[in-house]
Amino acid sequence: MSADAPLPKLDLVVLDCPDALALAGFYAEVLGWELQAGSDQAFATLVPPGGGVSPDNPDGRATLAFQRIDDWAAPTWPGGSHPQQFHLDLSVPDIARAEPAVLAAGAKVHEHQTSEDGGFRVYTDPVGHPFCLIRG
């Protein structure tokens, strides 16, 4: 980028899914974030405590959104015909203590675990997106 051009700020990360409102509900429970007014089954946005980046909150944090895709196909990580393109790492002080709440919200422990030192654990959300709890 040119030296005089403003640097962009990450505003929104969007995950494709079969039902935006349902998946937003899962992540709202896991993260303790709020559902933004106007969210529906086609497009739903979560806002972290303190708000997200927007013209009204230029120093905020990125938000997480969900977009319904009619022909949704779950990722087949770690390989397969529809491999993972993207995943979320969620930092927690203690994975073992955080895991029960994530599972109660609807996550599943993924069968494929690659951490050799226990620094992270792989899960899938209710529609199959892999995500990790990482020791942070």
UniProtKB/TrEMBL annotation:
Q: Which Pfam families match?
A: Glyoxalase_6
The record, for InterPro entries, names:
Glyas_Bleomycin-R_OHBP_Dase, Glyoxalase_6, VOC_core
* Residue ranges annotated for the VOC domain, each copy included: 9-136
The name of this protein is Glyoxalase-like domain protein
Q: Which PANTHER family match?
A: CONSERVED PROTEIN, HYPOTHETICAL FUSION PROTEIN
